[in-house]
């Protein structure tokens, strides 16, 4: 009888502990779960280091489930309204977390706001549209063509006074997104490392970068002009849309301001 009593007590404690664990899991916010997932996914993060396929899928799954309410956003907030009509709308950035391994932040875009074509050197980037409609166009560098690909369109015919510094790129994505939708992922050398966001409506994009931008380490944000080509002479298996990209300074009419994140807190 004594043994049976001990077994029953142990099972009772195990059941109680299991209930407490499930209760704690339910109480953890989606933002906290995202942070904990990022810590594991980017534990070995570094320039050009891509997490394993399993870890990428786990982080993607966590982001796929997130919506604006999980980060305390509403579409009627001032971030998503244009205050001027004689210049491009101001974009607001909400900082959630940054360390040497990864960063988490949210871009809040009013209708017609544009994040111009820019790159993510050595980074793996996850972008989740939380609400709204957005157009994304992205490119990858073309490094595997013959030494002398023959463009059918001359870059000087595209309005360029100087063709110095041009580099050939291929369109990876040219797509409209409407929330709810899946997370888009780009890699250091694939997946559309250079991309441009155009807000069709007010929208918010949750971004996770691993590793984050770091000027001292050479990971700064480079902006580009793009000059599409109608066609280019390439092997049949590499057909697609191409463009000349040319480095540029940060656009003068691009205004990104920081604001205090007021959503669920991250416990570090």
TrEMBL record:
One record GO biological process: detection of hypoxia
Single Gene Ontology MF annotation: cysteine dioxygenase activity
CDD domains assigned: cupin_ADO
Annotated EC: 1.13.11.20
Cofactor: Fe(2+)
InterPro entries linked to this entry: PCO/ADO (IPR012864), RmlC-like_jellyroll (IPR014710), RmlC_Cupin_sf (IPR011051)
Region described as Disordered: 1-28
Membership in a protein family: Belongs to the cysteine dioxygenase family.
Keyword Transferase on entry: no
Keyword list, A-Z: Iron, Metal-binding, Oxidoreductase
SUPFAM superfamilies hit by this protein: RmlC-like cupins
Reaction equation(s) it catalyzes: L-cysteine + O2 = 3-sulfino-L-alanine + H(+)
Protein name: cysteine dioxygenase
Basic and acidic residues composition bias: residue spans: 1-18
Gene3D superfamilies documented for this protein: Jelly Rolls
């Amino acid at each position: 009888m004594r043994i049976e009593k001990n077994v029953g007590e142990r099972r009772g404690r195990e059941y109680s502990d299991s209930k407490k664990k499930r209760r704690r899991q339910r109480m953890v916010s989606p933002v906290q779960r995202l942070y904990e997932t990022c810590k594991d996914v980017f534990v070995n993060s570094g320039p050009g280091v891509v997490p394993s396929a399993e870890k990428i899928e786990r982080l993607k799954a966590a982001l796929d489930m997130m919506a604006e309410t999980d980060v305390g956003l509403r579409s009627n907030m001032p971030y998503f309204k244009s205050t001027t009509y004689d210049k491009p709308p101001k974009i607001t950035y909400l900082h959630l977390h940054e360390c040497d391994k990864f960063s988490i932040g949210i871009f809040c875009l009013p209708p017609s706001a544009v994040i111009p074509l820019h790159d993510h050197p050595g980074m793996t980037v996850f972008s989740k549209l939380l609400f709204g409609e957005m157009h994304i166009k992205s490119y990858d560098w073309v490094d595997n063509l013959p030494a002398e690909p023959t463009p059918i369109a001359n870059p000087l015919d595209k309005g360029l006074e100087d063709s110095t510094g041009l580099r050939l790129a291929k369109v990876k994505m040219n797509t409209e997104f409407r929330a709810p939708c899946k997370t888009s992922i780009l890699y250091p050398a694939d997946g559309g490392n250079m991309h441009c966001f155009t807000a069709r409506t007010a929208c918010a994009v949750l971004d996770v970068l691993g590793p984050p931008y770091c000027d001292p380490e050479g990971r700064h944000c480079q902006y580009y002009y793009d000059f599409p080509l109608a066609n280019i002479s390439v092997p049949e298996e590499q057909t697609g849309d191409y463009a000349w990209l040319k480095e540029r300074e940060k656009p003068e009419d691009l205004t990104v301001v920081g604001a205090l994140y007021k959503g669920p807190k991250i416990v570090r």
